[in-house]
Design a protein that fits this description.
This protein is α/β, with parallel strands linked by helices. Helices cover 44% and strands 14% of the residues. A seven-stranded parallel sheet has the order 3-2-1-4-5-6-7, sandwiched between helices. Helix 2 (47-57) links the parallel strand 2 (39-44) and strand 3. Helix 1 (24-35) packs across helix 8 (224-235) and helix 3 runs parallel beside helix 4. The chain is globular and about 50 Å long. Bound molecules: nicotinamide-adenine-dinucleotide. Nicotinamide-adenine-dinucleotide binds at residues 19-20, 22-26, 44-46, 49, 64-67, 92-96, 117, 144, 146, 190, 192-193, 195-198.
């Protein structure tokens, strides 16, 4: 695997808000953005892991349930009040619970819970971040969708997939609407990543894991640092003409028909 440790400091003086900062992709991104010089504001519903992430990055922790509009507003206000700008919003918190499964087995409560955490949260975070970015005339929003927003799976998690499709469409629309305000909005579409979210899902069902691995041309899941490197690119001015995309970081899954044996 390639070493993704930063070789540049593209984000010096920028303020980045990261949701789901305590674990997985969020935590790897906190580390990467801090290493590139950003002030990082770490948001998580889990106080212990969120605080630890902020301490490690020399940033700020704001305990936030991303489904709560007032808490989300307070998060972005804390970022602005502490550091004087909101330049990057990585709206990343998400869940993938086992009771979200085939449409035939998934209840309305599970459907709604996943929509709230994965999709409504992104609506709330964008709604809170954009006014700061418009006032500055600059900003990069990265919303975590998934490759499942682009491809169908017979191993369905119906609400998760629908929520990520929503994130993708919303990001595209916002990227178009606010482009002339200097704001870029991209949907990040990771392939399967080796994080607690995925480990929990597959530990219970190894057959499900094997069934998915076979579709990945590179033959392995991504590491969180590889996704964090893509976020840092989208956050930085190196991606100044990248907007309203479904930015795939998937090891080639979405391009594959037959994979290597
Ligand atoms: N792991 C993968 O294979 C994969 C692939 C594609 C997309 N994604 C997406 O990437 C994002 C991060 O996933 P991960 O694998 O790093 O997960 P993770 O479970 O390792 O981390 C998610 C973090 O979000 C936090 N969180 C959950 N609900 C929250 C809430 N209501 N408010 C605030 N924080 C909350 C959790 O406490 C946790 O720290 C998710 O949106 C996920 O859907 C993951």
């Amino acid at each position: 695997m390639t070493d993704t440790s930063p070789v540049c400091r593209r984000l010096v003086g920028r303020t980045a808000v990261v949701t789901g900062a305590g674990s997985g992709i969020g935590l790897a991104t906190v580390r990467r953005l801090a290493a590139e010089g950003a002030h990082v504001v770490c948001a998580d519903v889990d106080e212990v892991s969120g605080k630890a992430a902020a301490e490690e990055a020399g940033g700020l922790f704001v305990r936030t349930d991303v489904t709560d509009a007032e808490e989300v507003e307070a998060l972005f206000k804390a970022a602005f009040d502490t550091y004087g700008s909101v330049d990057i919003a990585f709206n990343n918190a998400g869940i993938s619970p086992p009771d979200d499964d085939s449409i035939l087995d998934t209840g309305l409560e599970a459907w709604r819970r996943v929509q709230e955490v994965n999709l409504t949260s992104v609506f709330l975070c964008c709604k809170a971040a954009i006014p700061y970015m418009r006032a500055q005339g600059r900003g990069s929003i990265i919303n975590t969708a998934s490759f499942v927003a682009r491809m169908g799976a017979a191993t369905s998690q119906i609400s998760y997939t629908a929520s990520k499709g929503g994130v993708l469409a919303m990001s595209r629309e916002l990227g178009v609407q606010f482009a002339r305000d200097g704001i870029r909005v991209n949907a990040l579409c990771p392939g399967p990543v080796n994080t607690p979210l995925l480990q929990e899902l597959f530990a219970k069902d190894p057959e499900r894991a094997a069934r998915r691995l076979v579709h990945i041309p590179v033959g392995r899941f991504a590491e969180p640092t590889e996704i964090a490197a893509a976020v840092a690119f989208l956050a930085s001015d190196d991606s100044s003409f990248v907007n309203a995309t479904d930015f795939l970081v998937d090891g080639g899954i979405a391009g594959a028909y037959v994979t290597p044996v």
